Amino acid sequence: MPRAAAGFDTVSETGESRPSPIDVHVGSRIRLRRTLMGMSQERLGEALGLTFQQVQKYERGVNRVGASRLYDLSRILDVPISFFFDDMPSGTAHAGTPGAPGGFAETIDGFGQAEDPLAKRETLELVRAYYRITDPAIRRRVFDLIKSMGPTEN
């Protein structure tokens, strides 16, 4: 299988192939939603008829997600297909296209992962723990406490 068909669209300065920025973004959105739902890679893989290693490859953008698989993911993760493309950095749709505007390089770290604080495991665990607080009054007090500990907004 040609590397481009496996989702590798970009060649680095060292000659290594890298996943397409679009595939990386879609994968990060799959991971975000799966984690917010408290679902393991194994469980998602079982629902899709895949191994957890295949789910990992989708989440890292190494394997490209086809249209029918994206449909299955949207159904299992209970989100519209457009969710996987939400918050895509400007310029990503044309990344790797000669003469197209750039912009994605500034938004990924050295490992090809988005530097989005909302995608960090710590943030996702905090949100899940917050919503496990059943008393709305206590949840509001926790929210106010956390806001008071950070810098004031201008």
Structure commentary:
By secondary structure, the protein is mainly alpha-helical. The protein folds into 2 domains: 3-115, lambda repressor-like DNA-binding domains (434 Repressor (Amino-terminal Domain)), CATH 1.10.260.40; 120-154. The chain has helices at residues 21-36, 41-48, 52-60, 67-76, 121-131, 136-149; strands spanning 8-11, 17-19. Strands 1-2 form a two-stranded antiparallel ribbon. Helix 1 (21-36) packs across helix 3 and helix 2 (41-48) packs across helix 3. The chain is globular and about 45 Å long.
Spell out the key features of this protein.
mainly alpha; 2 domains; 6 helices; disordered N terminus; globular; 154 residues; 5% strand; 434 Repressor (Amino-terminal Domain)
Secondary structure layout plus pairing:
Blueprint: E1 8-11, E2 17-19, H1 21-36, H2 41-48, H3 52-60, H4 67-76, H5 121-131, H6 136-149
Antiparallel strand pairs: 1-2
Count of helix runs: 6
CATH superfamily of the largest domain: lambda repressor-like DNA-binding domains
Give the overall form. globular
Q: Which ranges are low-confidence, i.e. pLDDT below 50, for 5 or more consecutive residues?
A: 1-5, 96-114
Mean pLDDT: 78
Q: What's the total number of strands?
A: 2
Q: What portion of the residues fall into strands of 2 or more residues? A: under 5%
Distance between the termini: 53 Å
CATH architecture of the largest domain: Orthogonal Bundle
CATH topology of the largest domain, by name, is 434 Repressor (Amino-terminal Domain)
Secondary structure class reads mainly alpha
Main sheet: strands, sense, barrel: 2 strands, antiparallel
